[in-house]
Structure formats: structure tokens, C-alpha cells
Specification:
Blueprint lengths: L1 H5 L2 E4 L12 E3 L12 E4 H6 L8 E5 L2 H5 L5 H12 L3 E5 L6 H4 L16 E5 L8 H17 L5 E5 L4 H10 L6 E4 L7 H9 L6 E4 L14 E6 L7 H10 L6 E5 L1
Parallel strand pairs: 1-3, 1-4, 2-3, 4-5, 6-11, 7-9, 7-10, 8-9, 10-11
């Protein structure tokens, strides 16, 4: 409704699948034509590829935290951020877990909250591996996953990493744990596991391996004891990575987080 009222361009980080956008003109590289001065929704890359003039337009950035956190590996994020800063346009950013984009774009923040029914007992360990120790880091992460699963210490185990997700998933597969594992990445959106998580907002297997795809609006409302493992490249978006990973869990009350 807001997009129509403001005649806005809604921009999202990944391919549009959310039913909330169905009443908008969906513009992709394969379908949908951009019509000037009409409301629409498109991935950031299309704004740049079609060289759309944003002057005096209302721009609604959905899941705006990803615009900041993905700059280190996705050129279009940094390029759009630069365009928005240099253009006379009106910006509304929407995120349940905002990070550096608010300061970067000079936005005013409005915080809408609701009382939590549960207190989170969070235990966090920060373990800096260093560039020379990536092999030992993934070996340690794999051992932590296997041990936690074997001794049933947690109801759900999840790894967030764009760097190690494939090697860890493959190792679990070779160890015969593929039926106990869900792999969340963009190429797997059509799988039943991915669709279940989107629909039910629940992790469906004991072990989950995830890339940044989870930050695009996925929530996990599992209430048991959770082990979160995170492996990221250190840099200016590290704090954002932590916020996004921990922010996926809205109902859990007992979390161990190893970074």
C-alpha cells in the first residue's frame, strides 16, 4: 500500500519471491518493463543495469541491512549505496535488524518494538582464527557440529558462513549426515526444506548450513536450545554479520554462539 501511495521503487537484495509484492510491477532481467513514475519492485542490480533515474523518487529499501553487510563481496550493494548518497531522492529503509546503512545514508531511525515474552540466555565466544588458520577453523567447526549432534546437546545447530558453507556441507554429506542437514543457499530455494523454512519459519532438521541468504527475511522461531556457529571475514561489516545471524532467532531462549 505504501509503495502505491508514494509511487515508489521498492528494491530488494534477491529475486522477488515475497507475496507482499504481488500487487506491484515486478521488474527483472527476464520479465517486467520499468515504467517511469509507476510503483514497482526490483533487485538492486536492475536499478543499476537499467540506469534508472532516481531523482525525486521515493525509494523503499526492503531488508536494508543487506545493502550494508554485502558490500564486501557484492559490487552492486556499494554502487547503489553511492548512487543513493549522490542523488536527490527520498529513502525509506525497512529492516528488523538495521546496521550501518542508517548512518551511511544519513537516515532518521524509527524503532517499533513489541514486548518479548521470553528472556534470551545468550552465551557468546569470539574466537579469531586468522587468515592462516582457515583450514583449522573449518576443522574445529566441523568437530563442534558433529559432537553437538552426536551427544544431542542442542535441539538445533546452525552455521552461518559464506566462506565455509560448501566444505562443511560436503564433509557432513561424506559422513552420512545429509539426511540430518539442510543447506540454505540461493541455488537451493526450490528445495522442500527451503520452502518449509520460508513457510513455517522453523528449522526443519537438526543441522543447518546457511549463507547470507538467511538474512533476506528468514526467521527461525525454534524454541529449544540452539548452537549458532559463525565464520566470517573480519572487516567493517563484521558487527552487522553478528547482528543478522543472532537476529534470525526471535523465540529461542537458550543460545550458544561461537564466532
Amino acid at each position: 500500500g505504501l509503495a502505491h501511495e508514494l509511487n515508489a521503487i521498492v528494491t530488494v537484495p534477491y529475486v522477488v519471491t515475497n507475496a507482499l509484492y504481488n500487487n506491484l510491477n515486478i521488474v527483472t532481467s527476464e520479465r517486467g518493463e520499468y515504467i517511469e513514475d509507476e510503483p514497482c519492485v526490483m533487485v538492486w542490480d536492475q536499478i543499476l543495469a537499467k540506469n534508472i533515474d532516481l531523482t525525486n523518487r521515493w525509494i523503499i529499501i526492503d531488508e536494508s541491512h543487506t545493502l550494508f553487510s554485502e558490500r564486501e563481496f557484492r559490487d552492486s550493494a556499494g554502487q547503489l549505496m553511492k548512487r543513493l548518497k549522490e542523488t536527490n531522492c527520498n529513502i525509506i529503509s525497512v529492516s528488523a535488524t538495521p546496521t550501518g546503512e542508517v548512518q551511511e545514508l544519513g537516515l532518521s531511525a524509527f524503532r517499533f518494538t513489541k514486548p518479548r515474552k521470553n528472556h534470551i540466555n545468550l552465551r557468546a565466544k569470539i574466537l579469531w582464527a586468522g587468515n592462516k588458520n582457515q583450514a583449522s577453523a573449518w576443522d574445529k567447526i566441523y568437530k563442534d557440529i558433529k559432537e553437538a549432534f552426536q551427544y544431542k546437546r542442542y535441539d538445533n545447530i546452525i552455521l552461518f558462513s559464506d566462506l565455509l558453507h560448501e566444505v562443511i556441507n560436503n564433509k557432513l554429506f561424506l559422513e552420512g549426515l545429509e539426511k540430518e542437514t539442510t543447506w540454505l543457499k540461493s541455488e537451493n530455494k526450490i528445495t522442500e526444506d527451503f520452502k518449509y523454512i520460508q513457510r513455517e519459519e522453523l528449522l526443519c532438521k537438526p543441522i543447518t548450513i546457511s549463507t547470507r541468504i538467511a538474512y533476506n527475511g528468514l526467521n527461525f522461531n525454534n524454541k529449544g536450545k540452539i548452537l549458532i556457529l559463525m565464520y566470517f571475514k573480519t572487516g567493517e561489516t563484521l558487527s552487522s554479520e553478528l547482528i543478522q545471524a543472532l537476529g534470525r532467532f526471535r523465540q529461542a531462549s537458550d543460545i550458544d554462539a561461537n564466532v
